[in-house]
Amino acid sequence: MKHLTIENLPLHEVVPVLGEFLQLYYIRNSGAAFSLGSGVTWIFTIALSVVAAVIIWKAFNVQSRWWAVVLGALLGGVLGNLTDRLFREPGFGNGHVVDMISMPWMMPAIFNVADIFIVTGMISVALLVVLGLRFDGTRERDHAPVETDEEAEAAAVAAEDPSSPSDGR
Question: Quick one: where's region Disordered (predicted)?
């Protein structure tokens, strides 16, 4: 999408797609959201690199399809913008991100597909955490806290012998 934008869209000119509902507007963003922090682009490069590394590291323990999809989307968005930071002008680590999507009726921001994946990914991470879904696919509610050694032993015995009587808890 970024390549098509660079090759086909005029820089800093509105191209209506669906009137003012959806427009294409090619810019190069040196900052973060709303062009904040344009003087410290290198910090975004480091932050994106750390986020990508953590996602890749965590991916080795993911057994949940939901977490795999969400982390994959988030990683795709992060790598999309990190690639711009590393390899676009004005130079390595300080590159400007190519943005091209504008929806002026909704917000005064111009963004790209990677940004959509990052925002959607972060909202999805929050939902998965709130719903208690763990990386291994189990739910938080399936893991009752054990208070004492006796309760831990009783839980272990019950797990080994599902036919043993329950105490009603």
Answer: 142-169
> Which residues are part of the catalytic machinery?
99, 115
Per-position b or e across 59-84, b if 16+ CB within 10 A of its CB: eeebebeebeebbebbbebbbbbbbb
Q: How far apart, in whole angstroms, are the C-alpha atoms of residue 11 and residue 68?
A: 36
By the 10 Å C-beta count (0-12 exposed, 13-18 middle, 19+ buried), 40 is classed as middle
Instruction: For 21-36, write each residue's pLDDT tens digit.
Output: 999 999 999 877 766 7
More reliable by pLDDT, 141 or 111: 111
Which H or E element spans position 4?
Answer: helix 2-8
Count other C-beta atoms under 10 Å from residue 122's C-beta: 14
| Predicted confidence (pLDDT) per residue in 117-137, tens digit | 999 999 999 999 999 999 999
Residue ranges in 9-148 assigned as alpha helix (H)? 41-59, 65-87, 113-131
Helix (H) / strand (E) element for 23: namely: strand 22-29
As a whole number, mean pLDDT of residues 139-155 equals: 71
User: What is the distance of C-alpha 152 from the center of its chain?
Assistant: 37
Start-to-end CA distance of the chain, whole Å, equals 56
